[in-house]
Amino acid sequence: MDQRGLLQTTLLLVIGDFGRTPKINFSGGRDHWPRNFSVALAGAGIQGGRVIGKSDSKAGEPTDRPISIEDLGATIYTALGIDYSKLYHANGRPIAINKEGQPVQELFS
Fold first, then answer.
1. How far, in Å, CA of 99 to CA of 81, rounded?
2. What's the pLDDT tens digit per position in 16-54?
3. Are the C-beta atoms of residues 61 and 36 closer than 8 Å to each other?
4. What span, in angstroms and rounded, lies between the C-alpha atoms of 18 and 39?
5. Residue 58, CB half-sphere, CA atoms under 13 Å: how many?
6. What pLDDT sits at residue 18?
7. What are the backbone dihedrals phi and psi of residue 106, each rounded to the nearest 5 degrees, phi first?
8. Is 92 helix (H, G, I), strand (E, B) or coil?
């Protein structure tokens, strides 16, 4: 995509729907864990080669620069040129497309 110039206008997002617990459960597996998960972003103004945030040694808890799912949403909207603070109206009711999230500015500078 980069060689063809497509990353200038395309946002590439690689994400799972959750992390995994740092401890093995009674069945020998790991359970869903929303506290830590990884995301890879490229293109659409995202600066490459950045690692933002850090977890403890067991990947159990964020320890540095935690980013909420709302922050990720605001970051995606910003990269796509969408106002993440906009309110839409449906049946006379305001609907926020992102509640309280802020873009991860380190990805754009």
1. 17
2. 877 787 788 899 988 887 778 889 999 999 998 999 999
3. yes
4. 10
5. 8
6. 78
7. -60, -20
8. coil
Structure tokens, 64: 């540095």
Amino acid present at 7: L
- Distance set, CA 52 to CA 2, 14, 56, 83 (Å): 22, 15, 14, 23
Please tell me the distance from the alpha carbon of residue 93 to that of residue 75, in angstroms, as a whole number.
25
**CB 104, CB 71: distance < 8 Å:** yes
Average pLDDT over residues 98-108: 94
Residues 6 or more apart whose Cβ sits within 8 Å of residue 13: 39, 40, 41, 76
Sequence-distant contacts of 65-71: CB under 8 A, at least 24 apart: 67/104, 68/101, 69/101, 70/98, 70/99, 70/100, 70/101, 71/101, 71/102, 71/103, 71/104
pLDDT in tens, 42-96: 999 999 899 999 988 877 788 999 999 999 999 999 999 999 999 989 999 999 9
* Contacts of residue 80, Cβ cutoff 8 Å, sequence gap at least 6: 11, 44
